Amino acid sequence: MLISSQSRVSLIGQFVTAAVLLTLVCTLALVDAAEEGLPTETPADATPPAAAEPESPEAMIQRKAGEAIKTVEDQASKVAKSVDETQQAKVAAENVLKPIYMVAESLSFPAFYWIAFTLFAAGAISFALQLVLGKLVVLSRMGFSLKEILSDLLGLVISLLGLVLTTQAATENSTFTTSASAVLSATAVGGVLGFFMYLWGQSQEIEAARGRSMTSNQQPPAAPGK
Predict the structure, then answer these.
(1) 8 Å CB contact between 134 and 162
(2) For residue 165, what pLDDT is reported?
(3) How far apart are CA 181 and CA 188, in angstroms?
(4) Angle, alpha carbons 23-27-30 (nearest 5°)
(5) DSSP character for 225?
(6) Pair 131, 152: CB distance under 8 Å
(7) Are 113 and 166 in contact (CB under 8 A)?
(8) How far is CA 77 from the centre of its chain?
(9) CA separation for the pair 81, 74 (Å, rounded)
(10) Residues sharing a CB contact under 8 Å with residue 112, sequence separation 6 or more, in sequence order
(11) How far out from the chain centre does Cα 20 lie?
(12) Whole-model pTM over 0.70
């Protein structure tokens, strides 16, 4: 098949154009590669990068504490997982929970949550007053006991947790929280009972502080050295 002269000129023009474009692309690629290989010169007045600031003792302590806490959490998670997979641990847990379930079934009467709410409210009010007012009264009489403070603090935490759990369980299993009269009456009775418990606990703590003071005063003086 013969190609006309006009078609031949068109093919030659396209070939020349493609060759020129290919040459231009290769030239630009070589120039970029050469520029990347050249070392970069730093100006004389350029400021060197600032060195990393040393870690402060507080930051180091926080970092170490965070690492220690994470390590303890990981170890506790591994231990808990291994215990959960042990058949003997499952049987032991069932033996612990079984009597609790039996007591819960025997206490499933309508007034249970009212009584539980009242008792936990009384405990929370009593221990809170003992931690604030009771300790001030004891300190005014030159008495102080760290054991009593920790004991009252533990009682307050247990009472508050019991109050929260009782309220949650009552919301799911009874109509106690939907009755305004039941909630208000339990709170009022718990408040009065907690106040009397506070007075009783304060009198016992004052007597204990007085006994410690008398014991310390009755101690014989130390014998003089020879």
Answers:
(1) no
(2) 94
(3) 10
(4) 140
(5) P
(6) yes
(7) yes
(8) 15
(9) 11
(10) 174
(11) 70
(12) no
Query: Over its length of 226 residues, how does the chain's per-residue pLDDT go in tens digits?
Result: 444 544 444 545 555 555 555 555 555 555 555 555 544 454 555 555 555 577 777 777 887 888 888 888 888 888 888 888 888 888 888 899 889 888 888 887 879 999 999 999 999 999 999 988 888 877 776 667 788 889 899 999 999 999 999 999 999 888 999 999 999 999 999 999 999 999 998 888 888 777 776 776 665 555 555 4
- Any residues with CB less than 8 A from the CB of 113 and at least 6 apart, and which? 166, 169, 170, 173, 174, 176
Residues 6+ apart with CB under 8 A from 212: 143, 145
Token pair 């069932």 is found at: 94
What is the number of helices (H) and of strands (E) in the chain? 7, 0
CA distance 86 to 189: 46
Longest dimension (CA), the chain: 139
Is residue 158 within 8 Å of 123, Cβ to Cβ?
A: yes
Nearest to 145, CA basis, from 85, 218, 210, 49 = 210
- Tally the C-alpha atoms within 13 A of residue 130's C-alpha that lie toward its C-beta: 30
Burial of 134 (0-12, 13-18, 19+ CB in 10 A): buried
CA distance 183 to 153: 25
Tokens standing for residue 128: 């809170």
C-alpha distances out from residue 221 to 215, 217, 218, 224, Å: 13, 10, 9, 9
